[in-house]
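Per reviewer request, we include the raw input and output of the structure prediction for the construct analysed in the revised manuscript.
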Amino acid sequence: MKGSILRNPFLGGGARLAGYIPNDSVSQMLLSASHRLKKGAKLLYFPEGTRTRPNADWLNPFTKGIALLSRYSSAPIIPIYIRSNSRIFEKNRPFFLKPEFPLKISFTVGKPVEYVKGENIKLFSKELEASYIAELSKPHPLRRVPVK
């Protein structure tokens, strides 16, 4: 989570109690997350690094963080595909814009993906990103409409 939110007097306490890890330092974040995964914790990680931007067809390019985390922790990645009939969760969306109601959200859990020791991190990350695009671009009642 964005470190400034964790330090926010109104939001920080709840976020820290929930176990959020600050992302101020990528290396520290990966070290902390890897340590927790090795101890059996579950981690929800958004591989785009931020909310999807309005001009993205399906999603933003993935950061290498998820691949590095899988490599260092030996934890499998369990993809979760999130779809909605609204773009309410997009990056930079004004909070005062009314979303489409009723708001519908779909979560689909994919098959676990494991990092193979010695595999190229950049290639692994690109393949993971491609698998997300393949899934999110399939016909679905809540499929995101690509930007034209």
